[in-house]
Amino acid sequence: MGKLTTHVLDTMNGCPAAGMQVQLLKLDDAGVVPLKTLLLNGDGRADAPLLEGAALVPGRYRLVFDVAAYFRSRGIALPDPPFLDQVPLDFGIADAGSHYHVPLLASPWAYSTYRGS
C-alpha cells in the first residue's frame, strides 16, 4: 500500500523542526485543492502518513512549509520580509502503490529536498 510522508530538519540548529506547520495541497485542472494542514511532532515528522491507501492517487501535489514562522517561534530575528517565508514544494505521484517520502532540510536562508525512503 502506498503512502506519502514528510519530515523537516532544522539545519540552522541541527535538530528536527518540531512544531512547523505544513499544508498539503492537490494540484489539478480545477486549481489548488487544500487537503490537510498539520504541525510536525517533536521528531519533525507528521504523526501519520499525509495520504495512504485509497486517498493516495496519482497526480500533482504541493507541500507548503511555514519556514519563517517556525524560525521566528524559535526566537530567530528575521528581516521583514524574510528571505524564505513559506517554502512550496511541487511534486508528482505516479505510482499510488509506492512510498513517497518528501523531506525538507531548512534554514532561514536555504533549503533542499529529495525523494526519501
Provide a concise account of the structure shown.
The chain has one helix at 67-73; strands at residues 3-10, 15-16, 21-28, 31-39, 51-52, 59-66, 86-93, 99-106, 111-113. It has 117 residues and is mainly β.
Describe this protein with a few key phrases.
five-stranded mixed sheet; 6% helix; 48% strand; mainly beta; Immunoglobulin-like; 9 strands; 117 residues; 1 helix; single chain
Structural commentary:
- The chain has 117 residues and is mainly beta.
- It has a single domain (3-113), classed as Sandwich (Immunoglobulin-like).
- The protein is 6% helix and 48% strand.
- It has one helix at 67-73; strands at residues 3-10, 15-16, 21-28, 31-39, 51-52, 59-66, 86-93, 99-106, 111-113.
- Strands 1, 2, 5, 8 and 9 form a five-stranded mixed sheet that branches. Strands 4-3-6-7 form a four-stranded antiparallel sheet.
- The chain is globular, with a radius of gyration of 14 Å.
- The model has no long low-confidence stretch (mean pLDDT 97).
- Quaternary state reads single chain
The description of the largest β-sheet is:
5 strands, mixed
**CATH superfamily membership, which one?**
Transthyretin/hydroxyisourate hydrolase domain
Backbone structural class: mainly beta
Helix content: under 10%
